[in-house]
Amino acid sequence: MRRSNARSPAAPDPPSSATTAQMGAPAFHFRPPPPSTFSFLSRIGAASGSPNKQPRGGFCVPIIAGAAAATFLFLFLWSQSPAGDRRFGIVIDGGSTGTRIHVFAYVVGRGGAPVLDLGAASTMRASPGLSAYADEPERAGESLAELLEFGRRRVPRSQWGETEVRLMATAGLRLLETRVQEMILESCRKVLKVSGFQFQSDWASVISGADEGIYAWVSANYAIGTLGGDPQHTTGIIELGGASAQVTFVSSEPLPPEFSHVLQFGKTTYNLYSHSFLHFGQNVAHESLRALLRSGELKSDALTPAVKSYIDPCTPRGYSGAMGSVKPFIGVLTADGADPNIYTAGNFSECRSAALMLLQRGKDNCVYRHCRLGSTFVPALQGKFLATENFFFTSKFFGLGSTALLSDFVMAGERFCGEDWTNLKRKYHYLGEDDLLRYCFSSSYIVALLHDSLGVALDEKRIVFSNQVSSVPLDWALGAFVMHKMAGLNAEHRDWTAGVIGGDSSALILLFVISAALILMAWSMSRWRKPQLKTIYDLEKGRYLVTRVTR
């Protein structure tokens, strides 16, 4: 019986390669290559059964993708186009070993608050420091010429008259007589008045050590992002300069009035302990220690009364110059006017003990509850701390890293102090002799200061040795600039610390993250809304079919 739907035989076509292929496929079950990957829109059309019918969610994807692109473009243009033009401010740091100019750039953000552009900040240093002109104070102003020329190259000429320049001298000048200080400052004022920048006479001054510490604390917490937040979450700062050391942090202890400094930032009040320890900077302390050794005041290091000589435990053995290379802070001779004989020992433990004796001189005169450094009140350290300047330089020299423990300084100092001077010179041939001589003392002094005096345990991890946070330098000059600009703002605009731009491309990173999130959202929605498709091979028809799978 014939099937009703059977086809009538047709005349055979001439043989061809195409026909041969079609006939051979069913016999051997060769499958043609799978269809090429469908584009996103072709898949939707195939599933819907009509090329003109857009399924649900089909319009969402291009809309969200377009919104992502538009958002990226808007935020990029917004970040590059602040409300006001870029402006500048200059702070000149008159330090003990050199003078440094800082050129800061900022824009006036929306609402009137200034926004620092740390990517445009620049610095230059000149030596010697202003205190080196104590014998010729009228020449001090000349040392600013090169620095001011640097500033003029960084600030557009059209803004010179609107750019404030402030000279703030620190411990180097604080060591001099008031009369000499004023003569040096007056020489500098004459130069600053004709610099082309905006300047007033009272903008050149010697700042107090406490103010220097507060400025450094502001700089550190500005960089970390805690300024304006909970006082207990702030970070303290300990600076070890050349002539002085500063300790500043938020303390919950009742503070004597002379050590208490109240700082208002926005709606937050900070009760800071801040004090500068003059003569406790690394260089001056080293010179003072050598002078005490020469005078015989550190009796434990004297040899015998009959022999006018002493042991210097902070200078590596084998160094023949001893006192000749590093000029002592105070020259002291023996009773008969002769220099004592010098024996270099290079002993870390003895150097640390000598440094501690120096730090504790005058403790018998303490009139407070406790005096951790000489006769000066210092409350118990609270929270985390940043240790800057010579703390950082010493850590870097020994290769200890920013998170080093004080026990690491002990081991590094013992190795260094115990080496012969000839070996040290060969190993560190790239360093000047004066610099290399200080590292035995500096490692000992740091341990004596932080552990033996301030009570930081040798294995504590709450101190970071660094001169910057991310790309923000931990320099008190930045804190001074922030404070002076903040003083001119209304209270509602005193929360501008979050608006740092340019320094580490953070704006572009933020734009990328936002755009990537929007694009990911678009992709997720397309996967969720689009139909699930399945490709099968129809043996009877000899081709692939795309079908929709019900969820």
From TrEMBL:
UniProt keyword annotations, A-Z: ATP-binding, Hydrolase, Membrane, Nucleotide-binding, Transmembrane, Transmembrane helix
Residues annotated as catalytic: 212
Checking Gene3D superfamilies in the record gives: 3.30.420.40, Exopolyphosphatase. Domain 2
- What's an example GO cellular component term for this entry? membrane
Q: Spell out the Low complexity composition-biased ranges.
A: 1-10
Q: Positions of the region Disordered?
A: 1-28
Q: Is Nucleotide-binding included in the keywords of this UniProt record?
A: yes
Transmembrane residue ranges: 59-78, 507-525
Q: Where does ATP bind?
A: 242-246
The residues forming the signal peptide are none
Query: Which InterPro entries does the protein's record reference?
Result: GDA1_CD39_NTPase
Family of this protein: Belongs to the GDA1/CD39 NTPase family.
Q: What is this protein called?
A: Ectonucleoside triphosphate diphosphohydrolase 1
